[in-house]
Amino acid sequence: MSPRVGPSGPLSRERIVTAAIEIADEAGLEAMTMKRVAARLGAGAMSLYRHVADKDELIGAMVEQVTGEYAYPDQDGLGWREAMHVLARQDWAAFLAHPWMLTATATVTPPFGTASLAAMEWALTALEEADLPPDAAARVVMTINNYVQGSARVVLGDRQSEVGDDPGRTWQHRLHDVDLGDFPRLSRLIAHPLPAGERDWFIQGLDVILDGVQPRQSP
């Protein structure tokens, strides 16, 4: 049987995944339905199931494709701490470029395809320099991932701030007109606002996490 042909050629898993990512980027993950993907490809909805079993499998393939778009550098001469910065920056870029990834990675079983496994292997390899037990190394990677996801949710969910703005400064601004008479420490904090454009809040937060890794190294 010849493959189903749409306006742009034969239907394939790659074309289906690409179309699904485009829809999710434009309108969110909830808007990405099999019917809508099929319509974009000029195909019948049922024809998609010849290439993906269901929507969950499609979402997993979307996560895998986005993960594969980010190349990790060679680790020669790259310290474990710098490698964790690379890991966090890669995830941060992916979440900001594809906000639906936040929902996809939290609600769908990870695909554990080649790209996802390679990313995890890269991170764990980098942490061997820190001489951590395997479970502690895994915890470091998970904690960084949770930090990146949480930061991305704050930034993407705050329509009043720019992506590069410091959430701490936004928080201070919102408390400026609040009566803090019974909260002296908060009052002192608000009295000394964070300077705009003079620090990278995302990296500073990451460094707080990484500072806690060093003491866990073996003697």
UniProtKB/TrEMBL annotation:
<dbReference type="Pfam" id="PF00440">
    <property type="entry name" value="TetR_N"/>
</dbReference>
<keyword id="KW-0805">Transcription regulation</keyword>
<dbReference type="GO" id="GO:0000976">
    <property type="term" value="F:transcription cis-regulatory region binding"/>
</dbReference>
<dbReference type="InterPro" id="IPR036271">
    <property type="entry name" value="Tet_transcr_reg_TetR-rel_C_sf"/>
</dbReference>
<dbReference type="InterPro" id="IPR004111">
    <property type="entry name" value="Repressor_TetR_C"/>
</dbReference>
<feature type="DNA-binding region" description="H-T-H motif">
    <location>
        <begin position="33"/>
        <end position="52"/>
    </location>
</feature>
<dbReference type="GO" id="GO:0045892">
    <property type="term" value="P:negative regulation of DNA-templated transcription"/>
</dbReference>
<keyword id="KW-0804">Transcription</keyword>
<dbReference type="InterPro" id="IPR001647">
    <property type="entry name" value="HTH_TetR"/>
</dbReference>
<dbReference type="Pfam" id="PF02909">
    <property type="entry name" value="TetR_C_1"/>
</dbReference>
<dbReference type="GO" id="GO:0003700">
    <property type="term" value="F:DNA-binding transcription factor activity"/>
</dbReference>
<protein>
    <submittedName>
        <fullName>Regulatory protein, tetR family</fullName>
    </submittedName>
</protein>
<dbReference type="InterPro" id="IPR009057">
    <property type="entry name" value="Homeodomain-like_sf"/>
</dbReference>
<dbReference type="InterPro" id="IPR050109">
    <property type="entry name" value="HTH-type_TetR-like_transc_reg"/>
</dbReference>
<feature type="domain" description="HTH tetR-type">
    <location>
        <begin position="10"/>
        <end position="70"/>
    </location>
</feature>
<keyword id="KW-0238">DNA-binding</keyword>
